[in-house]
Amino acid sequence: MVHSTLPVSKASVSDQVIKSEMPLRIALLVLPASLDLSKSLDADTLSLETPEVAKQLSVLLPDLHNSTLLQTTELVSIKVDDFEANLTATIESIEQGKLVQISTPTSSLLMMHALKAAQNRIHPHAQLAAMQMQAGSDSAASADACMADACMESALSQAKRKPDSVSKRFDLPELNSTEQFDAVCELIKDLASRTHHRDAAAIGPKQATSHYWFTDHHQARVVAINLTNSVQNRASQSSSSNCISFVVSQGTGFIAPRSIIHANRLQFVVSSDTQAGLIDALGSLKAQLANNSTSESLLTLMRDNLFAFEANGSTDTYAIALQASSVEAMLQELKAMVETLPKVMAEKGQAHSSQSSLQYKTPAGSYFTAEPLGSSAQSGLAFVYPGVGTVYSDMFSELHGYFPSLYSQLEREGDLKSMFQADAIYNLDPKVTPAMPLGDLAIAGVGSSYLLTQLLVKEFDITPNFALGYSMGEASMWASLGVWNDPHSLIEKTKTDPLFTTAISGKLTAVRKAWQLDNRDADIVWNSFVVRSKAAPIKTLLPEFPHAYLAIVQGDTCVIAGCETQCRELLARMKKRGIAANRVTAMHTSPAMEEHANVEQFYHQPLLESLPTDIKFISAASGDTCVSNARGGLDSQVVSRSIADTFCNTLDFTALIHSAQKQGVKLFVELGADRQNCTLIDKIAKQDHQCGGESTDFPCCTVPVNAKGGDDITTLLKALGQLISHRVPLTVTPLIDGINREIALSQLKAAAIMKQIKSEQMSNLTLQGEV
């Protein structure tokens, strides 16, 4: 049966709760506001009222649906009107073994004893460990503060927690009962989604309003909440205050992932073996869009489209990914694709065609290629890892809301806060990130690559055929693709090892040794410059400037590094302008060779017992040599020496890309912050095509998974669209799952509205009958 609360006097409430000294251990499950469990159960059988409700619950709250809890346990439904009394009634009911749904029109919680949740394999979003109430006779601000502190002290004592174990404390004054409950629910959602919200007044217009809630390794998130109110006594014309303090900790469950595609971010895929088939499919989609004007029907259309693609279209020769922000915009995308498709297909087989003429992409993200490069038959997919310096302030601030289980896994594996260098990357001052020391930049760079690799591999089942790295991106490659046994062990070493702090950065002790300087000589003023030039003219002049070096060759530009004065003099001799990086690192210069043995020792890491056999790892240092575990070529020494050779020698990124193309790479997917490698590879391919370079005959296409200044999810969705069109084997299940949740929520809201309308109609009929 379903019960409502009985009236509870405030006096008995306060006395009862204050005397409680044992932790409460109450599991909290956030429910959709429109889900009324009491009306979803048949009063006689306690079974779910309709198959639709059961299906919605299975999608939105699978733990609860899979248990028999709703069918076997009495449910109490409470509508918030007096928060103190409501909460105490809730706790009393839970102590009696009941379930409680407590709600307002905008928020809802299912509460139960933590042991009951565990027995039924329900992962709660949070756990209420303590609730204390206190009343005061003086409403002065200082008295309120003292009362709140005393109340919180009692709550922490009840929760058996020390004050320094609290992650955040929130003091929320002068809210009515509904506002109090809604505010507490929002904080529980933050715990369950691991989201940290920033103070709007403390950030600039381009900064993220929220990001992942990082904590120290193995430290749970704990929230302390104080709700204080002033109460006026009209009879005595005096005022008093009361306070409710809560201690709530994170649970083992998560708020359901946000849907990657929804009514304002549309995606459709059409596929066929022929041009005519594609045109027909585009026409059919246009007609379907005209008949699906509601939000729910549009979501259903997208879901069914993805179902059909995964079931039947994954083996078709061609695929078009269509993306837009509305039905009207999608119709425009369809029109543009129908008009352009024949032109793109006509380019196929033409001798003069470049990859850019064989593909069509729109600003919204729609994409088609007439020459798919990523199929299993092509075996030409490569993951490319960028080097140091690509990370940026607030990167990936939105991803955790879409992939909470992935972040949870990474948090279990190692220190996520250190892996992202979160204190610097998410600092309120955006100038902190660019000024990060070399070691910190390297850690955050590997961390960003590791995250995006796990996202593509584990969420979308994408496996590369090749892997390569730009500079220290080679370390990211070994860390991200299941080679090193414990890549997290390198985090603290990278922050503190002299290799990164003083040898090739900071005081540049390796350079001072190479230049035969002693402690009496002045500090080295080091810089690096990007210059638009081929390598040959620079190499010709280098003998005249012994403390300047050609560090990197990358398409139509090079990077020179060394003594800032000599670098500027070299640029002047060339009559070129260089863009200063203003970063101190001697990587890829001959003085770095002083540290070759140390670099090799630093990266000599134990490998996993089971290594990937289907990925060929290309070393930037070895040129045409391809290291593949399939022929037994991987061991700790091979990996560490490859990194050391790359680290200490000039990096010829152009030669690396040409080598990769000769070995079969056609599609380069960049796994890391921003899209700098994609830009460089595009320039190399364009140069080859225009100048008849050595790789003119090799097809080449790049796919960035992230882009600075862009929306995280939009950029990811565009990347997935490109991969789909290039026929890369992958799953779209995360997209389908997200849409199913959107549909279930839409149906719940619609049902709640209909019930409200019927209730009002019945009320009106009753009133009319009485008249």
Automatic annotation (TrEMBL):
Transmembrane portions of the chain: none
SMART domains associated with the record: PKS_AT
Listed Gene3D superfamilies: 3.30.70.3290, Malonyl-CoA ACP transacylase, ACP-binding, Malonyl-Coenzyme A Acyl Carrier Protein, domain 2
Residue ranges annotated for the Malonyl-CoA:ACP transacylase (MAT) domain, each copy included: 384-710
InterPro entries: Ac_transferase_dom_sf, Acyl_transferase_dom, Acyl_Trfase/lysoPLipase, Omega3_polyunsat_FA_synth-like, PKS-FAS_Synthase
One MF term in the entry's GO annotations: transferase activity
Taxonomy, superkingdom: Bacteria
NCBIfam families hit by this protein: pfaB_fam (TIGR02816)
Protein name: PfaB family protein
Species of provenance: Shewanella psychrophila
